[in-house]
Amino acid sequence: MFIGIISKVGIQKSINLANELQDSLSANHDLWLSDVDEIDNFKDDFSNTDLLITLGGDGTILRVARSTIGYDIPILGINLGRVGFMTEIPYNDALKQINYVLSNFSEMRIEERIMLNAKGMSDNKQFELNALNDIVLGHQSVSRLMDIDVYVDTSPMAQYRADGIIISSPSGSTGYSLAAGGPIITPEQKLMLIQPIAPHMSLDVGVVIPYNSKISINITSPNKAVVSADGFDEVVLGSTDTIDVEISKSVTKFIRLLPESDFYSQLTTRLKRDVLKNN
User: Fold this and answer.
1) Which of 16, 29, 114, 257 gives 20 to 30 Å between its CA and that of 150?
2) Which of 77, 118, 73, 72 is nearest to 94 (CA)?
3) 10 Å Cβ neighbour count for 178?
């Protein structure tokens, strides 16, 4: 097998584990190793890669998913982060579980999660963003309420006065959207969630949008805004700029050892663990 191992600079456990995996796997597999921030340097290897092993948290996976979109490479996540909704294998059990996956690769369950695609105009130039978690529209600098018109399949849906708006995938429903008061959606669903950020005298609940719809966003306030994908790739928008968000034709694939029902059994545990680490 041709395996990519993606570590995270600044996390010593991640670097140490990458070195251990290189020593352990190189005899039987072809490998390439990269820091997550340098993964784009290995694009020539993506088409031949059978598996990506990420050594970090959910943020590492978000970066990898966006960089490798369209290549259909399954990801095996080793959790070195805080919550780990996407990373299934704990650090202390990594070597054992990775060897099990490689020995039983053809029998492993593949979980597919939708991605979001956003296209728009900024300063008369077209841009395109891809995200596994969310597309977020927010302030560029001045903390004032934004006026945002939202359409679904060209039909007016809502006029928001808010700090911003989140277009979330099911994967992103346990992230920023949850902090903004949105619902949790199981990861296998194929839908989008429109979640306002601190709305004022406007629709203040999330709205679920089906998989085959298009969400169009117009900014009607004079202040500039910023749109980002998974917290990266910020694009500045003015009052005449627009964004269209749809479910991408590409998906992110994960190798899973546990059944789908594990999402429910681990949900409260993961959220409590994050709360405890922040207190």
Assistant:
1) 114
2) 77
3) 17
Q: Indicate if 100 and 146 belong to the same structural domain.
A: no
| pTM, entire model | 0.91
Active site (catalytic) residues: 58
Residues 209 and 133 reside in one and the same domain: yes
Structural Rg of the chain based on CA atoms: 20
**Together in a domain, 51 and 79:** yes
Contact, 183 vs 206, CB < 8 A?
Answer: yes
| 116 pLDDT more than 70 | yes
Q: What is the number of other CB atoms lying within 10 angstroms of the CB of residue 154? A: 7
- Same structural domain, 72 and 162: no
Average pLDDT value for residue range 111-136: 94
Same domain, 121 and 81: no
Residue 240 has pLDDT above 60, yes or no: yes
Axis-axis angle for helices 12-25, 94-103 (nearest 10): 40
Q: Give a three-class secondary structure readout of 62-109.
A: HHHHHHCCCCCCCEEEEECCCCCCCCCEEHHHHHHHHHHHHHCHHHCE
Task: Domain count for the chain, please give it.
Answer: 2
The answer to whether 235 and 271 have CB atoms below 8 angstroms apart is: no
Q: Residue 182 and residue 16: Cα distance in Å, rounded?
A: 37
Distance from C-alpha of 84 to C-alpha of 126, rounded to nearest angstrom = 34
Helices assigned H by DSSP within 114-261: 176-179
Do 123 and 214 lie in one domain? The reply is: yes
**164 and 68 in one domain?**
no
Same domain, 267 and 243: no
CATH number for the domain spanning 155: value is: 2.60.200.30
